[in-house]
Amino acid sequence: MKRFNPAYSFLYILWIVLFVIAPLVLIVYQSFFDISGHLTLANYQAYFGSGTYLKMTLNSIWYALLITLLTLLISYPTAYWLNQTKNKQLWLLLIILPTWINLLLKAYAFIGILSQNGSVNHFLTFVGIGPQQLLFTNASFIFVAAYIEIPFMILPIFNAIDELNPSFVNASRDLGATNWQTFSKVIFPLTINGVKAGVQAVFIPSLSLFMLTRLIGGNKVITLGTAIEEHFLVTQNWGMGSTIGVVLIVAMVIIMFVTGERRKKGRKGE
Amino acid sequence: MKRLISFILGILAVCFLLFMTSSHLQKAQGLTSSDTLTLYNWGDYIDPQLIKKFQHETGYKVRVETFDSNEAMFTKIQQGGTSYDLAVPSEYMVQKMRKAHLLKPLNKSRIHGLANINSRFLNLGFDPDNRYSVPYFWGTLGIVYNDQMVKANQVQHWRDLWSPRFRNQIMLVDSARDIMGMALIEQGHSVNTTNLVQLNAAKKRLDQLSPNVKAVVADEIKMYMAQDEAALAVTWSGEASEMMANNSHLHYVVPREGSNLWFDNLVIPKTAKHYKAIYAFINFMLRPENAAQNATYVGYATPNKAAEKKLPKAIAHDPQFYPDEKTISHLQVYQDLGPRMVGIYNDKFLEFKMHGH
């Protein structure tokens, strides 16, 4: 342990500088240039002065919240149940398996499932309800996004529950706590760190989903990711695109900070 | 440490071997020799048989590289890493590349067969006198409809799309210039307007369309329309011809009152090196029998008048892709409006996409 090898840290530092710090610096740097290459704060003025971008930001946050909430509601019971099963590693593997498949392929698969001639509508016709418009609705967008994010929520929660010492639960029951009390006073507070890690892993990427907004949402859901894509690919206004990127990074820092704060408060309360 | 170094050395050795193999392979194909023409084209945008024929006829080798957007091509040529000899940008991009000094002027005395091109498609605003570009294919923006859900006489004009009967039935292609352009034409304005009043009016008009809009999508529009997902779509003639090949219920209409006329053009980027091969290729593609063969393969409309006569009648007389003269005379070509106006068009379009959803 004590024999520290500088070669390893060199590689690590090189990696961090090249692929984490340099891109961040470049994004912040770019965000201060307008489309004709003049140093300016106009991009930030445009962002915070225009109703369009603020509305888009609120929109993104709202959808990211819904997606995170839905994933959490599904993931926590699933992770809890996984821990009770005999072959939990096998079940966990099955949950992780979809992450090995390319996101685009999964999105296209959902197009096949949800389209007018898709399996869901075939079933609905068979049952007698008749075909419904499923694609390009907010509900289908949130559903598919949640499906894609679920493994990233389950994993940290699963690990947290796995580390939970069962004697705490037994003690709580022995002392006469009901199931609900055991869960809300013992299990949940002890696994809250897993939940926080999961929320961070799901909320931030959900803010800037852009491919799904087009493929499944039909661009009826517009998030900041849509605007970034447009500024880099179509208008080639890299400054504005970077500005939105900076806003997203700041949002991420705030989320980390907020989820970090609550932990202390929670401990004080106990 | 020792293991790490040997690991890195191992990787370097593999890289070196791969590099040697690839350069050997390229040599074997004659790709590094001086008589290789590098064509930078859209994907599947030339009949491979024609390339074989050209190589056989002239002895030059052709290497085709592909791009999927004008902007991506612009960036790569600007960086200048690869020596592309010919590129195929759309008309507004020709103008933009010209402004950025990325194009070499054509030497007209070395080009034979420019007279085959329909004079209507020459000397246009984006490249006066065709100093830099030779038209390769052309097309329009129009409406695709599914005859199972819509009758032909219900969609002959842009304004028909606003009809309440098409609630939640229309798919739009995700392109700011084209959809804003559609609204501008519907209101009788130019697709190249820089008048903010007209642009705001067009955006308002689009907002009124939003209850009818089912989705704003990109390439997937082809798949959705082929699968009967929507009754109507606003898209380009090239995409329309691909959809129609997969679904016989689809038809394409170019509204008589006007639409966009677009071109893809052969240009010589500043990275070009092999001029003999370049002019041989341009002249080869201008020959009517070759242009006709290419148009039959790709499915887009050829600007080559002499080639049009050699096309099968069913293609050349199809008003969907070769509209009558009167319709063509109402078509408008996009001009490069500069980054600021392009930004405004895109902002308006983004506001429309966010409206009411």
Automatic annotation (TrEMBL), chain A:
- Gene Ontology CC: plasma membrane
Q: What is its main location?
A: membrane
Pfam assignment, any one: BPD_transp_1
Q: How does it sit in the membrane?
A: Multi-pass membrane protein
Cell membrane keyword on record: yes
Location in the cell: Cell membrane
Q: Which UniProt keywords apply?
A: Cell membrane, Membrane, Transmembrane, Transmembrane helix, Transport
What sections of the protein cross the membrane?
A: 12-32, 61-83, 90-114, 134-158, 237-258
GO biological-process terms attached to the record: transmembrane transport
Gene3D superfamilies (alphabetical) = MetI-like
Would you identify the family this protein belongs to, as annotated? Belongs to the binding-protein-dependent transport system permease family. CysTW subfamily.
User: Under which name does UniProt file this protein?
Assistant: Spermidine/putrescine ABC transporter permease
Q: Which organism is it from?
A: Loigolactobacillus backii
Automatic annotation (TrEMBL), chain B:
For this protein, the record's CDD domains field holds: PBP2_PotD_PotF_like_2
The source's superkingdom equals: Bacteria
Pfam families membership: SBP_bac_8
On whether Transport is a keyword of this UniProt record, the answer is yes
Q: Which GO terms describe its molecular function?
A: polyamine binding
Keywords carried by this UniProt record = Periplasm, Signal, Transport
Entries under Gene3D superfamilies matching the protein: Periplasmic binding protein-like II
Question: Which compartments does it reside in?
Answer: Periplasm
Asked if the keyword Transport belongs to this entry, the reply reads yes
**Chief localization class?**
periplasm
Q: Which GO terms describe its biological process?
A: polyamine transport
The protein's name in its UniProt record: Spermidine/putrescine ABC transporter substrate-binding protein
